[in-house]
Amino acid sequence: MYKDRLLNKNSLKLIKMKKLLVVLALGSLVACNSGTSTESQIDSSADAKKDMIDSTTEAKKDMIDSTAEVKKDNVDSAAKMATDTLKSTK
User: Fold this and answer.
1) H-helix or E-strand containing 46?
2) DSSP code of residue 27
3) SS3 for 37?
4) By C-alpha distance, which of 58, 40, 38 is closest to 50?
5) Which of 8, 27, 86, 90 is least surrounded by Cβ atoms within 10 Å, i.e. has the fewest?
6) Which residues contact 55 (CB under 8 A, 6 or more apart)?
7) C-alpha to C-alpha distance for 24 and 75, rounded to whole angstroms
8) How far is CA 16 from CA 5, 19, 21, 22, 77, in A?
């Protein structure tokens, strides 16, 4: 009689576990197929970051170019001044 009760308890536990498994499986399917997608949000934020980096890089490049141009102009004017000075001393 004790064995029958034990078998009955175990079989009830198995049935409960199977039901729980089915409920969890259905819940995960519903959650995965809910239709909400974050892919477009990720793409748009990646594009925004890329645009920000590109604009920052372009601004720094322009600043470097303008600084180099100013230094070149300063060197050219200093060279012209030196040449004029040498011409005037002759």
Assistant:
1) helix 39-89
2) H
3) coil
4) 58
5) 90
6) none
7) 77
8) 16, 5, 9, 10, 92
Residue 35 backbone zone (phi > 0: left; psi -120 to 50: alpha; other: beta): left
Task: Kindly state the average pLDDT of the residues 60-87.
Answer: 81
| Chain segment 20-35, per-residue pLDDT in tens | 999 998 888 887 776 5
State the Cα–Cα distance between residues 44 and 37, nearest whole angstrom: 13
* Residue bearing the bigger pLDDT, 34 or 55: 55
Instruction: Give the HSE-up count for residue 6: Cα atoms under 13 Å, Cβ half-sphere.
Output: 3
Residues 69, 34: Cα–Cα separation, whole Å: 58
